[in-house]
Each structure stands twice: as C-alpha cells, then as structure tokens.
Amino acid sequence: MTLANSPTLVDYDEVVERFDPMLGLEVHVELNTRTKMFCGCPTAFGAEPNTQVCPTCLGLPGSLPVVNRVAVESAMRIGLALNCSIAPWGRFARKNYFYPDMPKNFQTSQYDEPIAVNGWLDVALDDGEIVRVEIERAHMEEDTGKSLHVGGQTGRIHGADYSLLDYNRAGVPLIEIVTKMIPGTGARAPEVARAYVTTLRELVKALGVSDVRMDQGSMRCDVNLSLSPRDSGTLGTRTETKNVNSLRSVERAVRFEMTRQAGVLDAGDPIVQETRHFEEQSGTTRAGRRKETSEDYRYFPEPDLVPIAPPVEWVEELRGTLPEPPRERRKRIQADWSLSDEELRDLVNADALDLVAATVAAGAPSQEARSWWVSYLSQQANSQGVTLDELAITPEQLARVIELVAGGELNNKLARQVVDGVLAGEGSPDDVVAGRGLAVVSDDGPLIAAVDEALAAQPEVADKIRSGKIAAAGAIVGAVMKATRGQADAQRVRELVLQRCSG
Amino acid sequence: MTDLTRLTAAELAAGIHSREVSAVEVAQAHLDRIAEVDGDAGRGVHAFLHVAADAALASAALVDEAIGAGSAPASPLAGVPLALKDVFTTIDMPTTAGSKILEGWRPPYDATVTARLRAAGITILGKTNMDEFAMGSSTEHSAYGVTRNPWDGTRVPGGSGGGSASALAAFEAPLSVGTDTGGSIRQPAAFTGTVGVKPTYGGVSRYGLIACASSLDQGGPCARTVLDAALLHEVLAGYDPLDSTSIDAAVPAVVEAARAGASGDLAGLKVGVVRELGGEGYQPGVRASFDAALQLLEKLGAEIVEVSCPHFEYGLAAYYLILPSEVSSNLARFDAMRYGLRVQVADTGSAEEVMAATREAGFGAEVKRRIMLGTYALSSGYYDAYYGQAQKVRTLISRDFAAAFERADVLVSPTAPTTAFPIGDKVDDPLAMYLNDLATIPTNLAGTAAMSVPSGLARDQHGGVELPVGLQIMAPALGEAVMYRVGAAFEAVRDAEQDGPLIRRVREWS
C-alpha cells in the first residue's frame, strides 16, 4: 500500500501544545419502535433481505407516508432528556439526492424545523471532571436501505461488479443528535468525545427508545473536527469522519484526526473540508470520494405530511416519563453500593452498570452482582466475542445463581458451572443444577466416609492434625473436595475433618 | 331496445338493481362500444390505454349474483361501469401514468380510490389516457398518443385527464375518475361537454395516486350529469388513514344536494362573479356562454354579485414554481433501480449512468422541462425568491377566496378561456398551453372545491363545429354540498331551456 498522499503525523503532545481542537459530534440513534417511521413494516434486525418492505418504504409510485406516533414520542423524550426545548410546530422536509439505496431518491428528514433544540448534557470524564456539552438539535429522519457492493477491490460502489440492495432498513426511524461545537477541550478532546457518546448512549438506553448497539449500527457517530493554531481565536476547516462504530473508535478517531490535520497544516497545506471514513483496523481515517461540486439537497417542506404540533400537555406528560439523568444515577448508585471512583469507572467502562443494576433489582447484593459481571461474565463475553448484554444469561438468572450460593446450595465453583450451563442454553439455573446434578453434597454420611478415606490415605497428616496442627487439615479438605469433584461444602468438610481427628 | 351506453349512471343503477338489466349486459354494451370507437392511437377516440374486459365482466357477474341472491347492492352504483385514469394503481392492470418510464408496470397494490370502487361493486372497464404524469392540458403529452375529442376528432379533449373525459363524451363509460392538479378534471370536462369535479384537497385519498404535485393533486368524479358525479363523489370521498393529508370529517351530502338542486331554485343564494377571471384572453363565444349562464342563475333566483380576487393574476406564476418543485422531487424515484424502464449502459455503466440514460429515454419533453424548472427553483440561493415567494402567493390567494366567500356562497367563471383547440396547435408553445388553466389553478392553490358543468356551445376562430363550453362553480373547502346544489340547478334549467342535455348533441363517432 502506498502512503504517497499520507501526511506525516504529528506527535500528539506536540499537537495539543500548538493547536486548539474544535470538536462536534453527530450521533444517529435508530429507534426501537416496532414499526418503521412512515409505514407499518416491522423493524426487526437481521431478517432475510427485502422481507420487511411495503409500497411506502420501497417508494413505489403512489405510496404515501404516515408518521409513526411512537417515534415522535421517542424523539421528544430524547429531546427532553437532553434539556432541549420541544418545537410547538414543525414540518418534515425532503432532502433530495440520488442513491440506489434511497427508494424515493429523497430522504424524509427535518431540516430547519427540528423537533428539539438548544439543550445540554453534562458528561463526566475519567477523573470526575464535568464537561457540559451543548446540544444544538435533535431531529427525526428515516434510514436508507443497505447496499452491498460485490466485486472490485474497495467494497465501494465504484469498481464493484454489481450491487445488492436490501430495503429492510429503509424507513427505520432515526434521531440525529447534533452537538454545538465543543471548544476548549485541548488534550482531552478524544476523551470528551468518548465520554459524551458513552453518556448519551447510557441516557438513550435508560429511555428505552433504542438498543443503542454501535456494532449493529443502531447508534452511529460522526466526528467533526478542526484545528486552529493555539489561542489564535480562529476557526479551522473541519472534516467529518464517519463509520466510527465503537466507543473506543470515537476516541481513536478524534485523536488520529488531530495528529493528521496537524501534519497537513505543518506541511503548509490546507485542510480539505470533506467526509472521511474511520478504519477500525488501523485506527486511521481515509478520505471519502471527493465531490466535484458541493451537494445541493434542495430541501423543501414535505407536502405529503402534515406539520407536527405537539400540545403542551403531551410534552409535559412525556417529561414525567424521563429516567434519572445518567450522572445523577451514577452518583446515587455509587453511594448505594459504596463504590470507589475507580470501581464505578470500571463498571461503566465494562458497560456493566445497567446489568448490575438489573441484577441487584432482581434481589442480588451489589457486591456479588458486580463481581460476576465485571470478572467472570466479562471474560466469557470476551472469549465469545460478544458484548456483555448479548450473553445468554439474564440479570434475573444471575440473581438466582447468587441466591443459590448464599443459601449454601452451590459453592463458587459449582456456581460457575451453573452459569456455564445457562450460557450454553441448558435452561434456567435450577434446570442446570438438576440437569447436571450439581447440588452441593451436604448429607454428612458420604462426606464422613470420604474424610475417613482421606485420613487413612495420609496417616502422617492425620497424626499432625491429631497433635493440634490444625493448619494441616487443608490437605485433607483438598483431597475430599477432589474426591467429591467439588460438590462438597468445603466449610463442612473442614469441620468434619477436625471432628474425626478429635475423637 | 334502449342503447345502454346512452343512459346515465343513476338510470343504469336503477335498472341493474331492479333486475331489468344485468350488470354483465351493461358491462358488455360498454365494452362493445369501446371496441367500436376507441381504436388505436391515430384512428379512434383512444380514451383507453388498457381495457380489462374479462375482469370487468367478472366483477359485473358478482354484482348480478349478489342481487340475484337477494342481497342489497354494495352501493348505489353497484354494477355501473367506470373508466379509471391510469394514474391510480391497480393490482390487476398495468399502471403507466401516461409515461414510457412505467410501461408495463404492474403495481403490487391498489390505490385507495381503486379499492373503494371495487368495494362499491363498480365495474372498472379499464385505464384511461392522460398527459404524462398529469402534466399537460391536451393529452398530447401522453407517451401513448393523443386522445381525440368526440365532438371533433381533430380537436384535443383537454388534459391531463382527456381520456377520462372523452370516454364519457364518446359513451364508452357513464362514469370516470380523474385527478385535478391545476384543472385536469375541470378543463377536459369543459372541452367535452361533461361534468368534472375537483373536491376539496384531502377529500379523496391520494394513496395510490401517482403524484404529480403532492400539495395540489386531488382525485375526483367525472360524469355526464351532476347527479352521477355526486353519486360517484360519495363513493370516492372519505377519510383514509393511509393519506396523512386526508380530511377526517364527514363527507358532504352531495347526492342529497344534487337532488335538491335539480328540483328547486337558488333563491337567497349569492353567486359571485370573479372579476379577474373572464375578461381579456377569453374567447368571445366562451364569454357569451358565461353571460348566458349568469342569466340562468339569476332566473333560478340567485343574486349575482361581483367579487375581486386581486392575487389570482399571480396564480399561474406561483403554480409553475410550486408544481415543478414538487414534481422534481416526486419523480426522482423513477431511477430504473426497482421498477419500470431500465436502459442498460454498456458493461461499464455506473448506477448514475443507468439512471441518467433511463430518465433521458423514459421521460417526455414536458416532464423534463418541469423537472428542470423545479430543480432550479429549489436550488440553494433561489429557494426564497422562487419557491418561498410562490408559497406566499398561495397564502394570498387563499385569503382572496376567504374574502370572496364572505360575500358569496359560490363563485363562478368560465372553466377555460377557450373551447377545445386543434391537435398540434399549442404543443410547441408551453406558455400558451399553460394559460388554459388560468381560471382553474387558484382553486388548487387554495385547496378548495370546484366543478365544471356544461354551459353551452361556441364556435372558435378555426370554424368547424360548435364545441362545448364549461361553467366553473367554486366553493369553500368542504363546501361541496352548495356547489353540487348550484351545479344541479343550473344543469336542470339549462337542459330545460335548451332542448335537453348538451351531451346529446355530440356527433356520432366515425
């Protein structure tokens, strides 16, 4: 691969010493409404191509859109949760451009009359510092279909042998949330970007209006970034980086663009205002196809829809349904569970906060719930290559396992086997216990026999215990546990060993 | 034996429902008539682009069966044949909107209008010719050849719904459905001596109506009498949850109004003559017919008042900014990717090249002209001056109407400035063609209701036979009842004074 056009990257510390970054983020959230934005087709992810379509979302001649009320409600709740004002009257607009995966060759969107404007979101950085990110707007629009370009080298439409089109996604409701430019982040720009998207994701998830799965595209982030010479007060030319599909990528994309743009500027070249694509593998960005003319979308109000004019009572009713803001929720949880800042951060970074909270809500103590999700289950998710919430165990099931341990019916080792069984699809924890025969052996009869056997096998150890060296009992306990394949209650075994040696 | 094709829809329905005649016989008589006069482009009337004989007879047989079994008819028009403008989707017939780009397209769904016709037991004979995507005033812009005017085969039938109007005047169908974006129902009605109604915007569902200009398009009934139009109006109209712009209100009782009008007078009613519609540019014979109509209205007891609508003069200009803007966006979907025509471009043709080649080959000149006008009008930097200004004019025209309806119950004008013009006369002069719709456009811009009723005959400067003139009656939004009452009263007195219905004087097609 040739790097002929690649600029020399500037060392990051040097970048922030000499430049001020100006950051802006556009986040698309795919709503989890049962049906599409303007028709009754289902929105389920992963169906056979072109099976969730109708005349309207295929843009067939004569078809007409009808607004999904639940989508409007979700948009307003997102707006309210972001402290925005809800527009008392607004229209959809048509954004006109040609592309094969756009059924009508215009996208029904909101243009100059978005449903929510002028809000803010407080975002906590890793060290606890709070940054207030100003929200410019949140507006509704419909998603496009998906193109799969087959053949060629780039996987892009140019040079492809042919393209396949899937319109299942066409018309799925999207909310686009646009920040105002975020100034003064300096060296922390990448961290601020990640923290904002993390917090926004948490908020939208708490609202219950989206799956916010970045890996599946139900949450997508575009990063706008420009650099200007330190303290110059000027505004540099910005690039827009798309295809940023994970929280970590948000941070990496900002960081890379900063080092790249500094290199371009140092070489005396201008920054080209363009769309760039983030490359997950290399952590770099590459220029999209450059357009010879700037796109003119010829926006005009959508004549097939009537204006949206939510009555004040409706807006207030929705305000009453808002969840606790993420920062306050975290504070409350930290106090309730007595967590240190580091423990809370680990929980957030492991994306386990909601799962632990749900496990606690199902009756488990927070300490145990936290430990399971952050360590054993995180390892399992990691080795399966899935996210934590994709694991085939529910918080309620985990709470049951914890309950069985607390009741002495399982020990930790057995509990892991039960969890493995649940993950393997063997049913509920109780099903796995029954199916695998994993109950702790608590009947003393077989245990006494096993203890006696172990003592007989190691007479010198038995003598040590009899002579008062209680610490030596560990070896016998270990042998018994081994013999019972871990199903014995170790505490009880120890008691029995001491009992048999004292007589 | 009575010629079934000469009867009105109301008469046919009465005969079918009392089992004097079967729906199948009625359908067959009309299919025979179509076979006799419709012919191919260049020879016959060419009102139809598609005739669905088997489906029509099957549908009629079902009506006969139900009536034979003693069931009540599905609607007052059950068993009556109808011609449907080829702009409404039909699951069992091709739908082209008069364009090459949709040649042979079979929609996978029925328009709401189509579904309502079927539910009413109406026999759909086929699909009628039209200017491509309803853009035109003569049917000459159809990709499938011009429709001829049954009054004089060398004349146009008007447009865009020339096929729906000529089918009535040639006795190929007693009823038809049209769409009216700037006069596409009313001007052809005037040119063919038939009745055409443009309902209040939102009165008839647009779901399945292939859009020309979304904020102006409105489907409506066409017939040879006002009562027939009213009967069809009540079948077509009504709230449709699939069309967001559909009005969720009771359908005006237009049948009752038409019956009351036909047997009563117009005492106490104020009829407003719009000063700005009817002066300069109107053919002398059209003005004479209009003046005679006013006298008949006075004779019915109506008080004639003059009203002024000063912003109507900007209507045409505003219309030709709003319509092309919406057209440029509505027609973008015809890109060869999913349905309709696809023109292949060598092996290396990119998606964009295929789109461009298909649109080049598939769209006619008038459609391309309007796409370009609209694309320009919506471009950044021009939007405010063109589309934005036009929307302001639209508001002013609505206010003109509101003020005029303060002073009069209905407004009247000639429907079109001239009688039917010769084929080929204006096809190369878009501006002259656009002037046809001067008097009809304000109603579309305001979203109000209007109808055209035959007022008489006139001879133009080309000589030849006398041709029909239409009287336009305009009413406020959802004011269809008073409009039908006036229309029916006028029709009755005109027929009485002038030796029967005007349509009887159409020559026999040869």
Which terms would index this structure?
heterodimer, A: 503 residues, Arc Repressor Mutant, subunit A, 9-stranded mixed beta sheet, 3-stranded antiparallel beta sheet, 38% helix, elongated, B: alpha/beta, Amidase signature (AS) enzymes, 11-stranded mixed beta sheet, 16 helices, 11 strands, globular
* Terminal residue distance of chain B: 22 Å
* Number of DSSP strand runs of chain B: 11
Give the overall shape of chain A: elongated
Q: What is the CA-atom radius of gyration of chain A, in angstroms?
A: 29 Å
How many independent structural domains of chain A? 3
Q: Which geometry of chain B do the CA atoms define? A: globular
What's the mean pLDDT score of chain B? 96
What strand order characterises the main sheet of chain A? 2-5-6-9-1-10-11-12-13
Tell me the β content of chain B. 5-15%
**Structural class given helices, strands, pairing of chain A?**
alpha+beta
Q: N-to-C terminal Cα separation of chain A, in Å?
A: 80 Å
Structure notes:
The complex is a heterodimer of chains A (503) and B (510). By secondary structure, chain A is an alpha+beta fold. Chain A is 38% helix and 18% strand. Chain A folds into three domains: 12-297, no CATH class; 326-436, no CATH class; 444-500, Arc Repressor Mutant, subunit A. Chain A has 16 helices and 14 strands. In chain A, the strands form three sheets. A nine-stranded mixed beta sheet of chain A has the order 2-5-6-9-1-10-11-12-13. The termini of chain A are far apart. The model of chain A has no long low-confidence stretch (mean pLDDT 90). Helix content of chain B is 38%, strand content 12%. Chain B has helices at residues 9-17, 23-37, 53-68, 112-119, 162-169, 186-192, 226-236, 254-263, 284-299, 315-330, 351-362, 365-378, 384-407, 430-434, 441-446, 480-497; strands at residues 48-51, 81-85, 123-128, 175-179, 195-198, 219-223, 270-274, 303-307, 410-414, 449-458, 467-475. In chain B, β7 (270-274), α9 (284-299) and β8 form a beta-alpha-beta unit.
